[in-house]
Amino acid sequence: MAELWGIIGGLSEIRGFQVVWENLPYFLEGALITIEVTALSVAMGMVLGLFAGLFRLSHRVLLRSVAIAYIDFFRGTPLFVQILLLHFGILPYFGINEAFTSAIIACGLNSGAYIGEIVRAGIQAVDKGQMEAARSLGMNERQAMTYVILPQAYKIVIPPLINEFIALLKDTSLVSTIAVAELTYRGNLVYANTYQAAWVWGAVAVIYFIITKSLGLFGDYVERRLKTE
Amino acid sequence: MIDIVDVYKSFGKLEVLKGINLHIDQQEVVCVIGPSGSGKSTLLRCINQLEKVEKGHIYVDGEEVTDPKTDINRVRQKMGMVFQHFNLFPHKTTLENITLAPIKIKGVPKEEAIEMAMSLLRKVGLEDKAHVYPANLSGGQKQRVAIARALAMQPKVMLFDEPTSALDPEMVGEVLAVMKDLALEGMTMVVVTHEMGFAREVGDRVIFMDEGQIVEEGTPEEIFNNPKNSRTQSFLSKVL
Ligand SMILES: Nc1ncnc2c1ncn2[C@@H]1O[C@H](COP(=O)(O)OP(=O)(O)OP(=O)(O)O)[C@@H](O)[C@H]1O
Ligand SMILES: [Mg+2]
């Protein structure tokens, strides 16, 4: 115990440690905003992704084309560019100028495209005989999806969905470029004032890691639960 | 009950049905036999439009299923289909498997649907399995549930595609027994099968298919004891 205090006493002499320690509440608040941006984006992405995935598999050419164009564009261009394009180039025309809102729209659209592919793969992984059995009972395509296919696809979809959640959480660091005061943005500010690169970015990295690791463990738990179900 | 008129079906370049004509009466039990790849499943799947035909017409209970204007979902309710691999819904219990379509599609009140499902389960001898998931049923039990599920829509025709081919030998009998009961009750049935004993005993008529055509048809007596076509003869000499 005495040794531990000794170590902390020693650390508190170091300038970088002092910077991190003093800014810890500021960083944690940023982490909360990071989580908020991620959660809202994923919520939007799940709705978009469900429709993108369903439309992607639709027999209607128009729906399918729209879904393909959407998925291809957002997976085929950098999120960084999408954020800049939406925030400065497109959303102002819709009266949206607030960086936080832009960030969620950009990240939501981006994750919707990835989730769309996850949903498509999940639906396709359900045995073909399930759709046939449902249709042979007189269900239309929509009923078969709702009552038979999607309830089975969701189990297949959850693990990759949690991976997407984690990937997006890390990618939200890019919205620091439009001055959303999330974790990376705050790291940048503190670094600019102190030049303690190793300590500041080290602390930021550790905070990100703690969040993604917790999500990952939660994902493993859910996966185990689904398997035994 | 079912009229198939000059039906053709191809998968890409492969011609699978080459001019099928078949009339099936109400209450008739027609067994379809023939070598692998001869188009038996495809014919059955065309009847309920799981496959679209290229040419020709199919009528079920007076409605043309091959007419794009027909509401196929409504007509499919008149045809129960039983698959080789059961295709039970794994996320639903036995009871829910049976009640799902009546409740959601037909709008049958829940209590009524459950009551009917229980009486169907009694009929196939699986009353005690009502709340079990398919994963915990044997193959024979699964197929009996699948039959009950199809019957719950109160169909006028039942289509069976090799319902016992995926079963361990000791479970074949229990499924055939259920099918036989159904035939005795007067259900119109089309049964694709390799169970020659069943075709002989329960079938009113046997159809022998080869290479996308109906090569020979007749009573079980005629087909099994006195086949006229040489292809029928050689097929039967291999399977009997
Ligand atoms: N969806 C499909 N796409 C392409 N070819 C198919 C498809 N379904 C069936 N076929 C082909 O059509 C032919 C007839 O198939 P079908 O399943 O009707 O035969 P079957 O008489 O039922 O044979 P089995 O006794 O093996 O079940 C086969 O050559 C098969 O490979
Ligand atoms: Mg077959």
Automatic annotation (TrEMBL), chain A:
> Cross-referenced SUPFAM superfamilies, in alphabetical order?
MetI-like (SSF161098)
Q: Per the record's keyword annotation, is Coiled coil included, yes or no?
A: no
Q: Which residues cross the membrane?
A: 31-55, 76-94, 100-123, 144-162, 198-218
Listed Gene3D superfamilies: MetI-like
Against InterPro entries, the record matches this protein to: AA_ABC_transptr_permease_3TM (IPR010065), ArtM/GltK/GlnP/TcyL/YhdX-like (IPR043429), MetI-like (IPR000515), MetI-like_sf (IPR035906)
Q: Name one GO cellular component term.
A: ATP-binding cassette (ABC) transporter complex
Keyword tags: Amino-acid transport, Cell membrane, Membrane, Transmembrane, Transmembrane helix, Transport
GO molecular function per UniProt: transmembrane transporter activity
GO BP, one annotated term: amino acid transport
Q: What subcellular compartments does it reside in?
A: Cell membrane
Domain ABC transmembrane type-1, first and last residues per copy: 31-219
Q: How does it sit in the membrane?
A: Multi-pass membrane protein
Tell me its family: Belongs to the binding-protein-dependent transport system permease family. HisMQ subfamily.
Which NCBIfam families does the entry link to?
HEQRo_perm_3TM (TIGR01726)
Could you identify this protein by its name? Answer: Amino acid ABC transporter membrane protein, PAAT family
> Which organism's genome codes for this protein?
Thermosyntropha lipolytica DSM 11003
Automatic annotation (TrEMBL), chain B:
Q: Which GO terms describe its cellular component?
A: plasma membrane
* Keyword annotations of the record: Amino-acid transport, ATP-binding, Cell membrane, Membrane, Nucleotide-binding, RNA-binding, Transport
Q: Where in the cell is it found?
A: Cell membrane
What membrane topology does this protein have? Answer: Peripheral membrane protein
Keyword Electron transport, does the record have it? no
Alphabetically, the GO molecular function entries are:
ABC-type amino acid transporter activity; ATP binding; ATP hydrolysis activity; RNA binding
To which protein family does this belong?
A: Belongs to the ABC transporter superfamily.
Entry protein name? Amino acid ABC transporter ATP-binding protein, PAAT family
Origin species, per record, is: Thermosyntropha lipolytica DSM 11003
UniProt lineage? Bacteria, Bacillati, Bacillota, Clostridia, Eubacteriales
